[in-house]
């Protein structure tokens, strides 16, 4: 214990208070002991410190900060060093704004393209996600700020995210959903980590001892602080017992009183609380050191870095007839509302108040192109405007090439709600199909934070996907179009031909309470390659204005060596990708898995020998019989290529095994051994789980862990009436094309979280009364709510008086 001397001076009330938030973003300060408050802030791609009253949804304005491209964008760079640079900038701006803990990066797996928050996550692959996250973390923490990777763990949907149980087998948990976090902790040395809202196999992540103690702390050696997501604590006593430390945002000392009561009743040892307090004190004192701030020149450098990140992360998806780059003096028409109002970041708690935002229509006249005109063409909010369409068609007829800016708008993907489909708003495609009739030379500039269906891609000769490219992305897109920049981005996720091809089609999102991860380890390309499903653009895919030749593959016990040559006439960067497979495996496996990568810049005609080392994750799998990582003996295929389907060279290596005990029977698990996992039976899933599938149906009375939207099942007519009001409001917003994040949060929040999010106004005793009302016992429940309100207010005042008095007594 590092801070025993201080802990011995603390009262139990002070210890308990330190493990709960004081405000929306701050921890408690204990002045008599010299313990200051520390400040947390959202910041996966830019610091979001609110200038006024704080709220976790980003509804109130925040201080200006550099808006970098989102994680889903920067992951396309396949460059952890770029992530490190962005992390350094985030840390510097955090220092300038007085932020101690940056709540990011987000590295949950993109299990399904419809997850509304995919724009905040790196990849469908845990190895790529972990390496990119580790880069960000190293950068942030190099500035004396804590990074807080999130959301730990198995957070793959927004629907009922606070009242959902992820049912996942141990092998899938380890190999897919935890490996990225393992890399972030072991290689990035994260000093904080945020737990997810959901349950994992029946236990809330924040009180899941298997996750927090067995794996995070004991196996990975994590000694930092564990923080709840905002309102993500179910039972603070169980959380601390399991290894969680700080409950956020502001439960108003009700949770602290619960800790004190649990100690007095012998349900938790005070020494366990002391361990959490010790970790919190280490963070507080380390973060209270004076740190360097930046000036206007620093923000200018960060804008330049945002430009670089956008340029290196853009993916050239299509370039028929080498239409790109456009030659000087090409007559172009710039069409699309996104050229006027760029879609450069996601919606929700991560929204950044950018220091500046570039617009393509304001920049294009500074290029070498001859601009015949610019027009919006379509309504951003949907619907068709005949006058706008005609103006766009008339303009397209005058141009040699049309630059068409389009994609998912702000209402199409957002924190708090999952997407209903993978399509771009139809009015944008309607216009595109009209434009191609008058001009065959169309270059599309896409903006979207996650995978989309592209049945219209034949209408375009060139496609540049900028994803959500941050505040300086417009210039980067123009520089790629004109050839000033050679695109080098590679997709961090697969683009299926249609949503119906996705592996988790029938299992996403959750049905009632449970989300069953029946697809197992077959996420993304692991499924498409193994099941031989045709895709539009594979994982790792991206074109360049030059060509690269791979030769002379050498495989040895330490890794691979290969020669890469830029055979074109322009300089460019290539990402060499290493995949491993095993054809005669005794356990079921994907056809191939990413196990290494390296991005290298080569001048025209230049060759270089590239080494990619094997590591502890190259050949391992999780064995449910031995309950540890094992290596299967035998011959492995070592594949090196430009994407997961463009394998340039293949070698072999024989590896010694670590066990002769192999799980799984092929006769009982045909779906998993074939990779055709879209229709996994209950029996097969139970074989995978090694237990009975839990019942996820809502039955009987609702409890504190059910969501407000489940009042559909309530016995109380009043509760059902409130449910109808909220549902009707959501439907009206959908019809109007609006997303109300506050309403979505209210709709999906579990009842117990109300006590964690109201600044001490509501206690868990009051929530118990609310549940009585909901379940049909109005007068008894209402009485508990009223008496509980006054009791909670009195006890909070008494507690604060103790904290403010000398010695906390």
Describe this structure in words.
The protein has 809 residues and is an alpha/beta fold. The protein is built from 23 helices and 28 strands. Helix content is 32%, strand content 17%. Strand 14, helix 14 and strand 15 form a beta-alpha-beta unit. Helix 5 packs parallel to helix 6, helix 11 packs across helix 15 and helix 13 packs parallel to helix 14. Belongs to the glycosyl hydrolase 3 family. It is an enzyme of class 3 (hydrolase). Keywords: Carbohydrate metabolism, Glycosidase, Hydrolase, Membrane, Transmembrane, Transmembrane helix.
Short description:
GO terms for molecular function: beta-glucosidase activity. The protein has 23 helices and 28 strands. With 809 residues, it is of the alpha/beta class.
Largest sheet: 6 strands, mixed
Tally of separate helices: 23
Tell me the strand percentage band: 15-25%
**Number of domains in the coordinates?**
4
Distance between the termini: 25 Å
CATH homologous superfamily title of the largest domain: Glycoside hydrolase, family 3, N-terminal domain
Please estimate the helix content: 25-40%
Task: Using the 3D structure, state the CATH architecture of the largest domain.
Answer: Alpha-Beta Barrel
Mean pLDDT, to the nearest integer, reads 94
Pick out its properties:
Immunoglobulin-like; alpha/beta; 809 residues; 23 helices; Rossmann fold; four-stranded mixed beta sheet; six-stranded mixed beta sheet; carbohydrate metabolism; 4 domains; 32% helix; glycosidase; transmembrane helix; beta-glucosidase activity; single chain; TIM Barrel; globular
């Amino acid at each position: 214990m590092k801070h025993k001397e201080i802990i011995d001076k603390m009262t139990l009330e002070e210890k308990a208070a330190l493990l709960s938030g004081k405000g929306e973003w701050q921890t408690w300060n204990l002045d008599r002991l010299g313990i200051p408050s520390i400040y947390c802030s959202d910041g996966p791609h830019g610091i979001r410190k609110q200038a006024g009253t704080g709220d976790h949804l980003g509804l109130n304005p925040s201080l200006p900060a550099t808006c970098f491209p989102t994680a889903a964008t920067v992951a396309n760079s396949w460059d952890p060093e770029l992530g490190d640079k962005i992390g350094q900038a985030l840390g510097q701006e955090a220092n300038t704004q007085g932020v101690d803990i940056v709540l990011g990066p987000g590295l949950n797996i993109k299990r399904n393209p419809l997850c509304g928050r995919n724009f905040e996550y790196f990849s469908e692959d845990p190895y790529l996600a972990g390496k990119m996250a580790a880069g960000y973390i190293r950068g942030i923490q190099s500035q004396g700020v804590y990074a807080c990777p999130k959301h730990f763990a198995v957070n793959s949907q927004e629907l009922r995210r606070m009242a959902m149980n992820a049912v996942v087998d141990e092998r899938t948990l380890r190999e897919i959903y935890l490996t990225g976090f393992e890399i972030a902790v072991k290689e990035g040395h994260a000093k904080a980590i945020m737990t997810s809202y959901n349950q994992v196999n029946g236990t809330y992540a924040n009180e899941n001892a298997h996750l927090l103690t067995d794996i995070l702390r004991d196996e990975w050696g994590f000694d930092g602080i564990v923080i709840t997501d905002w309102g993500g604590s179910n039972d603070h006593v169980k959380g601390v017992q399991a290894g969680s430390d700080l409950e956020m945002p502001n439960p108003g000392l009700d949770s602290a009183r619960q800790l004190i009561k649990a100690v007095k009743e012998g349900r938790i040892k005070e020494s366990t609380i002391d361990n959490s307090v010790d970790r919190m004190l280490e963070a507080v004192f380390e973060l209270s050191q004076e740190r360097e701030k930046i000036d206007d020149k620093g923000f200018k450098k960060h804008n330049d870095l945002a430009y670089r990140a956008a340029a290196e992360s853009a993916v050239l998806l299509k370039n028929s007839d080498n239409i790109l780059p456009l030659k000087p003096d090409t007559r172009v028409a710039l069409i699309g509302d996104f050229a006027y109002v760029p879609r450069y970041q996601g919606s929700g708690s991560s929204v950044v108040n950018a220091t500046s935002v570039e617009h393509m229509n304001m920049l294009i006249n500074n290029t070498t192109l001859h601009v015949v005109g610019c027009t919006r063409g379509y309504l951003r909010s949907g619907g068709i405007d005949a006058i706008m369409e005609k103006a766009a068609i008339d303009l397209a007829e005058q141009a040699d090439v049309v630059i068409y800016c389009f994609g998912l708008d702000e209402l199409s993907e957002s924190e708090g709600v999952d997407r209903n489909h993978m399509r771009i708003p139809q009015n944008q495609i309607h216009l595109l199909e009209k434009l191609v009739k008058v001009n065959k030379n169309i270059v599309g500039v896409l903006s979207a934070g996650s995978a989309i269906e592209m049945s219209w891609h034949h209408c375009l000769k060139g496609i540049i996907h900028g994803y959500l490219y941050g505040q300086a992305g417009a210039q980067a897109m123009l520089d790629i179009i004109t050839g000033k920049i050679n695109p080098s981005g590679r997709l961090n996720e697969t683009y299926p031909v249609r949503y119906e091809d996705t592996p988790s089609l029938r299992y996403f999102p959750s049905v009632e309470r449970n989300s069953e991860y029946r697809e197992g380890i077959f996420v993304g390309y692991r499924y498409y390659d193994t099941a031989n499903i045709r895709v539009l653009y594979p994982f790792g895919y991206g074109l360049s204005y030059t060509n690269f030749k791979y030769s002379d593959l050498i495989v040895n016990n330490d890794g691979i060596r290969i020669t890469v040559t830029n055979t074109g006439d322009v300089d460019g960067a290539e990402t060499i990708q290493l995949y491993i497979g095993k054809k005669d495996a005794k356990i079921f496996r994907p056809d191939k898995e990413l196990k290494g990568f390296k991005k290298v810049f080569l001048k025209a005609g230049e060759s270089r020998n590239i080494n990619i080392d094997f590591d502890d994750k190259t050949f391992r799998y999780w064995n449910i019989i031995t309950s540890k990582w094992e290596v299967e003996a035998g011959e492995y295929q070592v594949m090196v290529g430009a994407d997961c389907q463009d394998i340039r060279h293949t070698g072999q290596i024989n590896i010694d095994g670590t066990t002769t005990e192999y799980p799984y029977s092929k006769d009982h698990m045909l779906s998993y051994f074939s990779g055709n996992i879209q229709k996994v039976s209950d029996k097969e899933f139970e074989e995978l789980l090694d237990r009975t599938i839990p019942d996820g149906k809502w039955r009987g009375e609702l409890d504190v862990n059910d969501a407000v939207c489940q009042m559909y099942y309530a016995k109380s007519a009043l509760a059902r009436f409130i449910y109808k009001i909220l549902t009707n409001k959501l439907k009206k917003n959908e019809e109007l094309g609006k997303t109300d994040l506050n309403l979505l949060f209210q709709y999906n929040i579990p009842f117990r979280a109300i006590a964690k999010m109201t600044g001490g106004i509501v206690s868990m005793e009051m929530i118990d009364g609310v549940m009585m009302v909901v379940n049909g016992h109005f007068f008894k429940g209402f009485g508990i709510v009223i008496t509980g309100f006054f009791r909670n207010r009195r006890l909070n005042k008494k507690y604060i008086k103790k904290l403010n008095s000398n010695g906390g007594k």
